[in-house]
Amino acid sequence: MQNAAKKSETEFREKIKLIESSTIIYIDEAGIDNRIFRPYARAPRGKKIYADIPGKKRERYSMIGGLMNNKFLAPITFSGGYNTEVLNIAKAS
């Protein structure tokens, strides 16, 4: 199995060598959740609490941007997480 993975990686690296580097766009997504805290908890002083966070639905705000030739491209911010629906909307526009 490792040999097949290594061969696949080698083939991939050879293919991307043929791509003009100035045409590559690096894309990244980051997000922020609210309500990721516990309103109260009890533990010995100085000890961290390891427990579930209350079941309230969280809101997520996501940001996506691209980098091409050291230029920041097409930043977008939206509510929710990055998923297939968001990707398809981005591809259509």
List the helices and strands and how they pair.
Blueprint lengths: L1 H16 L8 E8 L26 E9 L2 E9 L4 H9 L1
Antiparallel strand pairs: 1-2, 2-3
Question: Could you describe the 3D structure shown?
Answer:
The protein is of the alpha+beta class and about 90 residues long. A 3-stranded antiparallel beta sheet has the order 1-2-3, with no helix packed on it. The mean pLDDT is about 85. About 25% of the residues lie in helices and about 30% in strands. The protein is extended, with a radius of gyration of 21 Å. The chain has one domain (about 20-90).
Features:
single chain; 93 residues; 3-stranded antiparallel β-sheet; extended
Brief summary:
The chain has one domain (22-92). It has two helices and three strands.
Give the topology string: H per helix, E per strand: HEEEH
> What distance lies between the first and last C-alpha atoms, to the nearest angstrom?
40 Å
Helical segment tally?
A: 2
Counted up, domains total 1
**Main β-sheet description:** 3 strands, antiparallel
Strand percentage lies at 25-35%
**Low-pLDDT residue intervals, each spanning 5 or more residues:** none
Query: How many beta strands in the DSSP annotation?
Result: 3
Question: For the residues shown, what is the average pLDDT?
Answer: 83
